[in-house]
Design a protein that fits this description.
By secondary structure, the protein is an alpha+beta fold. The chain has two domains: 71 residues, Arc Repressor Mutant, subunit A (Orthogonal Bundle), CATH 1.10.10; 181 residues, Chorismate lyase-like (Chorismate lyase, 3-Layer(aba) Sandwich). It has ten helices and ten strands. It has a six-stranded antiparallel sheet with strand order 4-5-6-9-8-7. A two-stranded antiparallel ribbon has the order 1-2. Strand 5 and strand 6 form a beta hairpin.
Length: 275
């Protein structure tokens, strides 16, 4: 058994004090947004910690979404604290139920508002449509030849208070299928009351099931800048959503990158009871 030295509890106390004091200074406003934190060398000397412990403490603050690091410049208080998005599988059934509602009801708050607990007026919504040729991976998922024409829809939904997207990515639809309704090719029709499931219902498509494929990785430099996350300390969730209709045909594939520090993916597995 290894002996615990008297210095180890002291080190732990100093480490926790550093995290707690910086967190309190940030949340209370003593350290204003975009203010630089003291240098690692200064924190090391002030708190009697090793450089490794100081960096670990700063990493904890990054994981809390309180600070960001800039290579070669230091660590800064985040300009604004972003809203937490809580995403649950039940959202898909909720969206499907809305398809059958009259338009005036569908024009109310949508899935984003449901995930964040905010209202429609809290967000800025942008949409950009174009067409692309299906690369090999998307062609395989859709079950179409490589190079098939796809409608690509890129959405950016940002909190008005923060002006940073909740996520970035794109939704793909087979062009020859959705062109039956010209309105589905027009980005000016966005935000569409009732979302994608209602859009597809206008051409006779009913969604039977949705598969979420989830992975996590460090953000690319472009993703880190767009999402306002720390490229060194915050991972992103990569969600591929595959929508399948009642004929077992894949009708939509959406790839979304979401910041790991403010996204909560909640899955509940309901189990059958023993008889």
């Amino acid at each position: 058994m290894l002996a615990v030295t008297s210095e180890e509890p002291q080190q732990r106390y100093r480490y926790e004090r550093l995290v707690d004091e910086l967190r309190e200074q940030i949340t209370s406003g003593v350290l204003a947004p975009d203010t630089a934190l003291p240098s690692e060398a200064k924190l090391e000397k002030e708190y009697g910690l090793s450089r490794t412990s100081v960096r670990s403490a700063l990493r904890v603050l990054r994981d809390m979404g309180l600070v960001r690091s800039e290579k070669g410049r230091g660590t800064f208080v985040r300009a604004a604290q972003r809203r937490v998005v809580r995403r649950v599988p039940e959202r898909y059934q909720w969206e499907k139920n809305r398809v059958l509602l009259p338009e005036y009801e569908r024009r109310g708050d949508g899935a984003t508002e449901r995930d964040t607990g905010q209202t429609f007026n809290q967000f800025v919504f942008r949409a950009h449509y174009d067409t692309v040729e299906a690369p090999a991976d998307l062609a395989q998922v859709f079950g179409v030849p490589e190079g098939t024409k796809l409608l690509r829809r890129r959405y950016l939904t940002s909190d008005r208070d923060v002006e940073i997207p909740l996520g970035i990515g794109a939704s793909y639809l087979v062009y020859d299928i959705v062109k039956e309704n010209p309105d589905l090719l027009d980005a000016n029709k966005e935000p569409w009351p009732g979302g994608t499931q209602h859009q597809l219902s206008t051409i006779g498509i009913e969604i039977d099931r949705i598969i979420d494929e989830l992975s996590a990785r460090p953000p690319t430099p472009e993703e880190a800048e767009a999402l306002g996350v720390d490229a060194q300390g915050t991972s992103v969730f990569i969600l591929r959503k595959i929508s399948i209709d009642t004929t077992d045909r894949v009708v939509e594939v959406a790839d979304v990158a979401m910041p790991g520090d403010t996204t909560r993916l909640v899955y509940t597995a309901k189990l059958q009871r023993w008889k």
